[in-house]
Amino acid sequence: MTRFARIAYTETVRRLQEENGSALAGQRQLRDGDAPDPLGPDEREFISGRDGFYMASVSETGWPYMQYRGGPPGFLHVLDRHTVAYADVRGNRQYISAGNLRGNDRVALFFMDYARRARLKLYGHASVRDPEQEPALAARLTANGTDGRVERLVVIRVEGLNWNCPQHITPRYTERELAAVRDHIARLEEENAALRARLAGRDEPPAGG
């Protein structure tokens, strides 16, 4: 979390940490170097399983803008230890995030797994690519079934990452997750019914007894 802390813990933030008695925890995260935080196996698995995330960008007037991006699980691809990317398909045609990225490439990504009460935050620099100019990358980013007209490819170089604690996360489940639970319950009920039938057969008296 070293690089994440160096970006997030500004002078004002550190003063507030001191005022509230949490400066020591912040200082421990600032002790080491300033290299970008790498995406490890846990981050890669977590990101690859998400069917949506929130992305914040900043306009030339300084206002932040938050947008939700959704798609099939894994539509945000982990290209390597420091890079993620996705195919940006046509939406409501407001182009606010795309416009913001022309003037400021800084973004923040927020991933939620409500069912498992986990969340991950990323800081990064985003670059916009033309899918016609990079067909191999476009094919890779749409291979999992991304639906819609791809207008651009967004490649994000990760600077920092941070896992949040599960406190205050209310468990919620997608329809896909609920369907898996229902299937599991149905299989258990079938197994229980078969077991009860076998046990009932053992309790029956022998024929002619």
How does this model look, in words?
Residues 18-43 are annotated as: Disordered. It comes from Streptomyces stramineus. This is Pyridoxamine 5'-phosphate oxidase family protein. Pfam families: PNPOx_N. With 209 residues, the protein is an alpha+beta fold. It folds into 3 domains: 1-34, no CATH class; 36-164, Electron Transport, Fmn-binding Protein, Chain A (Pnp Oxidase, Chain A); 173-200. Helices cover 36% and strands 29% of the residues. Strands 2-1-5-6-7-4-3 form a 7-stranded antiparallel sheet. The longest helix has 29 residues, at 175-203. It is extended. The termini are far apart. The mean pLDDT is 89.
Question: What is the fold's blueprint, element by element?
Answer:
Layout: H1 2-8, H2 11-19, H3 23-29, H4 41-48, E1 52-58, E2 64-70, E3 77-80, E4 83-89, H5 96-103, E5 106-113, E6 118-129, H6 135-141, E7 150-164, H7 175-203
Antiparallel strand pairs: 1-2, 1-5, 3-4, 4-7, 5-6, 6-7
- Tally the helices: what do you get? 7
Which runs of at least 5 residues are low in confidence (pLDDT < 50)? none
Q: Biggest β-sheet: count, sense, barrel?
A: 7 strands, antiparallel
Q: What's the CATH topology label of the largest domain?
A: Pnp Oxidase, Chain A
Instruction: Estimate what percentage of residues fall within beta strands.
Output: 25-35%
In spatial order, strands of the major sheet run 2-1-5-6-7-4-3
**What is the CATH homologous superfamily assignment of the largest domain?**
Electron Transport, Fmn-binding Protein, Chain A
Class derived from helix and strand content: alpha+beta
Based on CA atoms alone, the radius of gyration comes out at: 24 Å
The tally of strands reads 7
Order of helices and strands, N to C?
HHHHEEEEHEEHEH
Average of the residue pLDDT scores: 89
CATH class of the largest domain: Mainly Beta
Helix % is 25-40%
Question: What is the distance, rounded to the nearest whole angstrom, between the alpha carbons of the first and last residues?
Answer: 75 Å
Region (Disordered): 18-43
Pfam families: PNPOx_N
Domain Pyridoxamine 5'-phosphate oxidase N-terminal: 44-141
Protein name: Pyridoxamine 5'-phosphate oxidase family protein
